[in-house]
Specification:
Layout: H1 4-17, H2 36-49, H3 52-60, H4 64-80, E1 85-94, E2 100-103, H5 108-116, E3 125-129, E4 135-137, H6 140-147, E5 158-160, E6 170-176, H7 179-183
Antiparallel strand pairs: 1-2, 1-3, 1-6, 3-4, 4-5
Length: 194
């Protein structure tokens, strides 16, 4: 079981120290937002905006996960009626040989460099953190599927309380807030939705 609240607090402190403008209140609420209803609402919204081909094309782009989460942050906030936060960091998952693989760079300087140099998609990772501490990641499963040629994973999402991940999966936040992108001169290209 990971201690996501502590990791998130460290990321929030680092963000404020780096002068990232972020409006987040901690501790996390003792309320769950992720449920079947939300999943039924999110799936069609993704389908309205993307064909599977255009979604996969976006996930192949260096900043695809971030573009996707930037676009869906207000949609998720509207659906749930709560302020949520764009979160930057990395995901760790043990592979079939129990070797832990890291998706996303694991230092802030490496993350900034990866954004500025348009590094491969698996080097830049982001997700949405709800006020409860729950994670919604619309990109990870597709990126993982692209790397391991598993098309059955395309379009799947991760939506859970981090303490409930199984198999050693771990989300590690490093920075929080959309303003982080302005601090590293992130250039957003228009989303390809067709």
């Amino acid at each position: 079981m990971q201690d996501y609240p502590s990791l998130f607090q460290e990321a929030l402190n680092q963000s404020k120290k780096s002068k990232v403008n972020v409006d987040v209140s901690l501790p996390f609420e003792n309320k769950r937002y992720i449920n079947e209803w939300l999943m039924y609402e999110l799936g069609p919204k993704i389908g309205e905006m993307f064909t599977q081909e255009s979604f996969v094309k976006l996930m192949r782009q260096p900043n695809g996960a971030t573009q996707l989460h930037l676009q869906f942050l207000p949609i998720i906030e509207r659906l749930l009626g709560v302020k949520s936060v764009l979160t930057f960091g990395y995901v760790q998952v043990p592979n079939d040989e129990d070797i832990v693989e890291t998706f996303g760079v694991d230092t802030i300087e490496s993350y900034k460099t990866a954004i500025q140099t348009q590094a491969a998609p698996e080097k830049l990772h982001s997700w949405i953190t709800l006020p409860s501490g729950e994670v919604i990641d619309l990109a990870f499963m597709t990126i993982y599927g692209l790397i391991y040629n598993e098309a059955s994973l395309f379009g799947n999402l991760v939506a859970k309380m981090p303490s409930e991940f199984t198999g050693g999966m771990r989300y590690v936040p490093m920075m929080v807030g959309e303003d982080f992108l302005h601090c590293v001169a992130f250039v957003s290209e228009p989303l390809v939705t067709e």
